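REQUEST ID: PR-0412
SUBMITTED BY: lab tech R.K.
PRIORITY: routine
TASK: structure prediction, single protein chain
INPUT:
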Amino acid sequence: MVYFNRCIHLCSVLSSVVVAAGAALFLPEWVMPNFMAQDNLSLPLGSRPATAAYTGNLEVRLVNLKNTKGQICLSLFSGAKGFPRGGKGSNLKTSRCTAIEKGGSMMTFNTLPYGVYAIAVIHDINSDGRLNQNALGLPTEGFGFSNSPPLRAGPASFSESQFFLSGTKTVQQVRIRYLIP
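STATUS: complete
OUTPUT:
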């Protein structure tokens, strides 16, 4: 029964992710039973399926750091709004800055709800808490995004950087890039 309930919850989470992405979900009826329909709120309380808030841990590993000066500032987003800068009304879930460890750096976020996330990272060499730029608007400090999308004019989008957090531990490796040596 526990296995069945986890299967049902996973189907519910996956359908939410696919619907949020604007795609149609085509699953066999045995995977998505009728009681998972959106109108199940009209059912009597005792006949609704039991659900639990599943959480997992996120481990972010940073690679390609140029040096150990300054700090690493990481922002975790749960939606596209405001990505990657954050600000009032954005989908910024959490952010933190930490000193760089010799040989690399890693951050862990515990008990995050299952779902879609994206990461934006800066190597804040002068520890001022922001990504510094030159007169042309090019970053003078390192930066990176989850999934390490290709470089373009401007920052990566949420859709290029998104990943699905599920299970007890999800690991994301973020490659730090420097435009100016």
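NOTES: The helical segments are 2-20, 158-161.
REVIEWED BY: pending
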